[in-house]
Task: inverse folding
């Protein structure tokens, strides 16, 4: 099943299940559209170009909540995965807390740029992760 944006139920579950006093690392797995699909404008760019624009514009939103992209790259193949599963881009973003993540996605600045992500992405996964304290 293809997924682009989290549902309110998914957000609420992760928000309630994640400790508030720990950093959270979001694993982003992204598959881009060939052509970006903007609903409110006739912009002609590829999905990858639209996502690059999203990353440029969202950078200030990420920084504003004390978060940082800690790794970004592309997949070259899966060793353990369904045969038809592949991802165009992988990102790890560390947030100081789940509340910082929520503050970012609820900010008016972020709401102004997320349209590029929605237009760019055909399928994605966003997985919240806590670092083990050993």
Result:
């Amino acid at each position: 099943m293809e997924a682009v944006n989290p549902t309110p139920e998914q957000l609420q579950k992760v928000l309630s299940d994640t400790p508030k006093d720990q950093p959270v690392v979001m694993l982003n797995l992204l598959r881009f559209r060939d052509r970006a699909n903007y609903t409110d404008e006739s912009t002609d760019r590829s999905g990858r170009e639209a996502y690059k624009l999203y990353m440029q514009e969202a950078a200030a939103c990420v920084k504003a909540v004390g978060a940082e992209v800690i790794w970004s790259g592309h997949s070259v193949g899966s060793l353990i995965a369904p045969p038809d599963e592949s991802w165009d881009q992988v990102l790890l973003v560390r947030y100081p807390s789940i509340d910082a993540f929520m503050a970012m996605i609820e900010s008016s600045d972020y709401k102004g740029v997320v349209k590029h992500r929605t237009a760019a992405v055909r399928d994605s996964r966003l997985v919240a992760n806590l670092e083990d304290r050993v």
